[in-house]
Amino acid sequence: MDAIILAGGKDNGSLKEQHKLNNKALLMIKNIPMVEYVVDALRMAKEVDKIIVVGPRDELVPYIGEKVTEVIDASDSIVKNIEIGINYLNDDRIIILTSDVPLITGEIIDNFIKKCQKHNASLFYPFISKEIILKKYPNTIRSYANLKEGNLCGGNLVIISSSLFNQNKALLNALYQNRKDVKKYVALLGVKFIFKYLFKCLTVKEIEERASEIVGYQVKGIKVSEPELMIDLDKISDYELILQVLNNPDDSNDK
To answer: What is the pLDDT of residues 171-208, one digit of tens each?
Structure first.
Protein backbone atom coordinates (compact mmCIF):
# COMPACT_ATOMS: atom_id res chain seq x y z
CA MET A 1 0.00 0.00 0.00
CA ASP A 2 1.24 3.49 -0.85
CA ALA A 3 1.41 6.21 1.81
CA ILE A 4 1.01 9.97 2.06
CA ILE A 5 2.56 12.00 4.88
CA LEU A 6 0.93 15.38 5.43
CA ALA A 7 3.74 17.75 6.38
CA GLY A 8 2.39 21.12 5.33
CA GLY A 9 0.93 22.19 8.67
CA LYS A 10 1.89 25.56 10.11
CA ASP A 11 2.44 25.95 13.83
CA ASN A 12 1.01 29.06 15.48
CA GLY A 13 1.26 28.13 19.13
CA SER A 14 3.77 27.67 21.91
CA LEU A 15 5.93 25.27 19.88
CA LYS A 16 6.56 27.96 17.29
CA GLU A 17 7.63 30.45 19.96
CA GLN A 18 9.90 28.05 21.81
CA HIS A 19 11.52 26.34 18.84
CA LYS A 20 11.39 29.20 16.31
CA LEU A 21 9.77 27.21 13.51
CA ASN A 22 6.95 27.69 11.03
CA ASN A 23 6.32 24.05 10.20
CA LYS A 24 5.90 21.31 12.81
CA ALA A 25 7.27 18.67 10.46
CA LEU A 26 10.70 20.31 10.80
CA LEU A 27 10.71 20.36 14.60
CA MET A 28 14.04 18.85 15.63
CA ILE A 29 13.84 15.93 18.07
CA LYS A 30 17.28 14.61 19.04
CA ASN A 31 18.73 16.47 16.01
CA ILE A 32 16.30 14.75 13.63
CA PRO A 33 13.27 16.53 12.07
CA MET A 34 10.02 15.07 13.34
CA VAL A 35 8.81 14.06 9.89
CA GLU A 36 11.86 11.83 9.43
CA TYR A 37 10.72 9.58 12.28
CA VAL A 38 7.45 9.00 10.42
CA VAL A 39 9.28 8.43 7.13
CA ASP A 40 11.58 5.86 8.78
CA ALA A 41 8.59 4.04 10.28
CA LEU A 42 6.92 3.77 6.87
CA ARG A 43 10.16 2.55 5.33
CA MET A 44 10.34 -0.20 7.95
CA ALA A 45 6.72 -1.25 7.38
CA LYS A 46 6.54 -4.36 5.21
CA GLU A 47 3.04 -3.48 4.01
CA VAL A 48 4.05 -0.05 2.62
CA ASP A 49 5.45 0.64 -0.86
CA LYS A 50 5.70 4.23 -2.15
CA ILE A 51 5.95 7.16 0.27
CA ILE A 52 4.84 10.66 -0.74
CA VAL A 53 5.41 13.68 1.51
CA VAL A 54 3.31 16.80 0.92
CA GLY A 55 5.03 19.79 2.50
CA PRO A 56 7.63 22.53 1.89
CA ARG A 57 9.78 20.75 -0.67
CA ASP A 58 12.89 22.95 -0.47
CA GLU A 59 13.06 22.55 3.32
CA LEU A 60 12.23 18.83 3.47
CA VAL A 61 14.32 17.41 0.62
CA PRO A 62 17.71 17.90 2.36
CA TYR A 63 16.51 15.67 5.20
CA ILE A 64 14.26 13.06 3.57
CA GLY A 65 14.61 13.49 -0.19
CA GLU A 66 16.55 10.25 -0.62
CA LYS A 67 14.24 8.28 1.67
CA VAL A 68 10.90 8.85 -0.04
CA THR A 69 9.41 8.49 -3.51
CA GLU A 70 8.64 12.20 -3.84
CA VAL A 71 8.27 15.42 -1.88
CA ILE A 72 5.54 17.69 -3.25
CA ASP A 73 4.92 21.30 -2.26
CA ALA A 74 1.85 21.74 -0.06
CA SER A 75 -1.04 24.17 -0.31
CA ASP A 76 -2.83 25.90 2.57
CA SER A 77 -5.64 23.32 2.55
CA ILE A 78 -5.42 19.91 4.23
CA VAL A 79 -7.93 18.46 1.76
CA LYS A 80 -6.03 19.89 -1.19
CA ASN A 81 -2.81 18.38 0.14
CA ILE A 82 -4.43 14.95 0.34
CA GLU A 83 -5.72 15.44 -3.19
CA ILE A 84 -2.20 16.32 -4.39
CA GLY A 85 -0.86 13.08 -2.94
CA ILE A 86 -3.72 10.92 -4.21
CA ASN A 87 -3.42 12.33 -7.73
CA TYR A 88 0.32 11.66 -7.77
CA LEU A 89 -0.03 8.06 -6.60
CA ASN A 90 -3.13 7.27 -8.68
CA ASP A 91 -3.85 4.29 -6.42
CA ASP A 92 -7.14 2.83 -5.17
CA ARG A 93 -6.43 2.64 -1.43
CA ILE A 94 -3.91 4.83 0.32
CA ILE A 95 -2.67 5.18 3.87
CA ILE A 96 -2.57 8.77 5.09
CA LEU A 97 -0.87 9.99 8.25
CA THR A 98 0.38 13.24 9.73
CA SER A 99 4.01 14.20 10.28
CA ASP A 100 3.63 14.73 14.04
CA VAL A 101 3.52 11.12 15.33
CA PRO A 102 7.24 10.41 15.84
CA LEU A 103 6.62 7.45 18.19
CA ILE A 104 5.00 5.41 15.43
CA THR A 105 6.86 2.34 14.14
CA GLY A 106 6.81 0.11 11.09
CA GLU A 107 5.37 -2.72 13.17
CA ILE A 108 2.48 -0.53 14.37
CA ILE A 109 1.69 0.49 10.79
CA ASP A 110 1.81 -3.12 9.58
CA ASN A 111 -0.46 -4.25 12.42
CA PHE A 112 -3.06 -1.63 11.51
CA ILE A 113 -2.97 -2.48 7.80
CA LYS A 114 -3.32 -6.22 8.52
CA LYS A 115 -6.33 -5.58 10.76
CA CYS A 116 -7.94 -3.51 8.01
CA GLN A 117 -7.35 -6.25 5.45
CA LYS A 118 -9.80 -8.46 7.35
CA HIS A 119 -12.69 -6.12 6.49
CA ASN A 120 -14.29 -4.76 3.33
CA ALA A 121 -14.46 -0.98 3.65
CA SER A 122 -13.36 2.23 1.92
CA LEU A 123 -12.35 4.16 5.03
CA PHE A 124 -10.56 2.72 8.05
CA TYR A 125 -9.94 4.71 11.21
CA PRO A 126 -8.13 3.51 14.36
CA PHE A 127 -9.42 3.97 17.89
CA ILE A 128 -8.14 2.98 21.32
CA SER A 129 -9.43 3.05 24.89
CA LYS A 130 -8.40 5.75 27.32
CA GLU A 131 -7.31 3.06 29.78
CA ILE A 132 -4.72 1.64 27.39
CA ILE A 133 -3.29 5.07 26.61
CA LEU A 134 -3.01 6.12 30.25
CA LYS A 135 -1.58 2.78 31.31
CA LYS A 136 1.44 3.39 29.11
CA TYR A 137 1.50 7.21 29.07
CA PRO A 138 -0.33 8.40 32.23
CA ASN A 139 0.66 12.05 31.78
CA THR A 140 -0.50 12.52 28.21
CA ILE A 141 -3.57 14.67 27.54
CA ARG A 142 -5.76 13.55 24.62
CA SER A 143 -9.32 14.10 23.38
CA TYR A 144 -11.81 11.29 24.05
CA ALA A 145 -15.29 10.30 22.92
CA ASN A 146 -17.55 8.90 25.65
CA LEU A 147 -19.22 5.93 23.94
CA LYS A 148 -20.99 2.85 25.24
CA GLU A 149 -17.77 0.90 24.86
CA GLY A 150 -15.94 3.44 27.03
CA ASN A 151 -13.76 6.54 26.57
CA LEU A 152 -12.16 6.20 23.14
CA CYS A 153 -9.49 8.18 21.30
CA GLY A 154 -8.95 8.34 17.54
CA GLY A 155 -5.60 8.02 15.81
CA ASN A 156 -3.55 10.03 13.33
CA LEU A 157 -3.65 7.52 10.51
CA VAL A 158 -6.37 6.44 8.08
CA ILE A 159 -6.71 4.20 5.07
CA ILE A 160 -9.01 5.68 2.45
CA SER A 161 -10.14 4.88 -1.06
CA SER A 162 -9.57 7.56 -3.68
CA SER A 163 -13.23 7.26 -4.76
CA LEU A 164 -14.56 8.04 -1.29
CA PHE A 165 -12.18 10.97 -0.97
CA ASN A 166 -13.06 12.50 -4.34
CA GLN A 167 -16.79 12.40 -3.58
CA ASN A 168 -16.58 13.74 -0.03
CA LYS A 169 -13.96 16.50 -0.06
CA ALA A 170 -16.14 19.14 1.63
CA LEU A 171 -17.24 16.77 4.38
CA LEU A 172 -13.70 15.55 5.03
CA ASN A 173 -12.51 19.13 5.31
CA ALA A 174 -15.21 19.85 7.93
CA LEU A 175 -14.24 16.72 9.85
CA TYR A 176 -10.60 17.75 9.90
CA GLN A 177 -11.35 21.30 11.01
CA ASN A 178 -13.39 19.94 13.94
CA ARG A 179 -11.19 16.93 14.73
CA LYS A 180 -10.65 18.05 18.35
CA ASP A 181 -14.37 18.70 18.98
CA VAL A 182 -16.13 15.39 19.60
CA LYS A 183 -19.58 17.05 19.91
CA LYS A 184 -19.33 18.52 16.41
CA TYR A 185 -18.44 15.09 15.08
CA VAL A 186 -21.51 13.63 16.74
CA ALA A 187 -23.70 16.49 15.48
CA LEU A 188 -22.87 15.49 11.92
CA LEU A 189 -24.50 12.13 12.61
CA GLY A 190 -27.90 13.60 13.58
CA VAL A 191 -30.08 14.56 16.55
CA LYS A 192 -30.68 10.95 17.68
CA PHE A 193 -26.93 10.46 17.91
CA ILE A 194 -26.46 13.62 19.96
CA PHE A 195 -28.82 12.34 22.66
CA LYS A 196 -27.32 8.86 22.60
CA TYR A 197 -23.86 10.38 22.92
CA LEU A 198 -24.89 12.60 25.84
CA PHE A 199 -26.27 9.56 27.66
CA LYS A 200 -23.14 7.55 26.79
CA CYS A 201 -25.05 4.84 24.95
CA LEU A 202 -23.83 5.54 21.41
CA THR A 203 -21.86 2.61 20.00
CA VAL A 204 -18.98 2.34 17.55
CA LYS A 205 -21.14 0.18 15.27
CA GLU A 206 -23.87 2.85 15.13
CA ILE A 207 -21.28 5.47 14.18
CA GLU A 208 -19.86 3.19 11.47
CA GLU A 209 -23.31 2.55 9.99
CA ARG A 210 -24.34 6.23 10.03
CA ALA A 211 -20.98 7.40 8.66
CA SER A 212 -21.27 4.85 5.85
CA GLU A 213 -24.71 6.28 4.96
CA ILE A 214 -23.34 9.84 4.90
CA VAL A 215 -20.30 9.21 2.68
CA GLY A 216 -21.87 6.51 0.52
CA TYR A 217 -19.10 4.02 1.24
CA GLN A 218 -18.40 1.48 3.95
CA VAL A 219 -16.61 2.97 6.98
CA LYS A 220 -14.91 0.80 9.58
CA GLY A 221 -13.37 1.66 12.94
CA ILE A 222 -10.40 -0.49 13.88
CA LYS A 223 -9.62 -1.09 17.54
CA VAL A 224 -5.88 -0.90 18.17
CA SER A 225 -3.66 -1.38 21.20
CA GLU A 226 -0.75 0.97 20.35
CA PRO A 227 -1.09 4.42 21.98
CA GLU A 228 1.72 5.74 19.75
CA LEU A 229 -0.84 6.17 16.95
CA MET A 230 -2.60 8.76 19.10
CA ILE A 231 0.41 10.62 20.55
CA ASP A 232 0.64 13.57 18.20
CA LEU A 233 2.73 16.64 18.95
CA ASP A 234 0.50 19.67 19.47
CA LYS A 235 1.97 21.34 22.53
CA ILE A 236 5.12 21.59 24.62
CA SER A 237 3.99 18.85 27.02
CA ASP A 238 3.69 16.49 24.02
CA TYR A 239 7.21 17.38 22.95
CA GLU A 240 8.55 16.69 26.42
CA LEU A 241 6.78 13.32 26.59
CA ILE A 242 7.99 12.25 23.15
CA LEU A 243 11.55 13.29 23.91
CA GLN A 244 11.42 11.39 27.19
CA VAL A 245 10.17 8.22 25.47
CA LEU A 246 12.76 8.42 22.69
CA ASN A 247 15.52 8.88 25.24
CA ASN A 248 14.29 5.89 27.26
CA PRO A 249 12.69 3.49 24.73
CA ASP A 250 12.88 0.49 27.06
CA ASP A 251 11.29 2.31 29.96
CA SER A 252 8.25 3.94 28.34
CA ASN A 253 5.74 1.98 30.43
CA ASP A 254 6.82 3.97 33.46
CA LYS A 255 6.31 7.40 31.85
So the answer is: 878 777 766 666 776 777 777 887 888 888 999 999 99
Entry pTM: 0.90
Residue 125 belongs to a domain with what CATH number? Answer: 3.90.550.10
Strand, coil or helix: 157: strand
Counting the structural domains of the chain, the total is: 1
The pLDDT tens digits for 218-231 are 999 999 999 999 99
**DSSP classification of residue 178:** T
Please compute, for residue 197, the number of CA atoms within 13 A of its CA located in the half-sphere on the CB side.
Answer: 20
Judge whether 204 and 221 are in contact, CB under 8 Å: yes
Instruction: Kindly report the backbone phi and psi dihedral angles of residue 33, in degrees, each rounded to the nearest multiple of 5, phi listed first.
Output: -65, 140
151 secondary structure, DSSP code: E
Q: Which amino acid, 40?
A: D
Which residues span the domain enclosing 73?
2-254
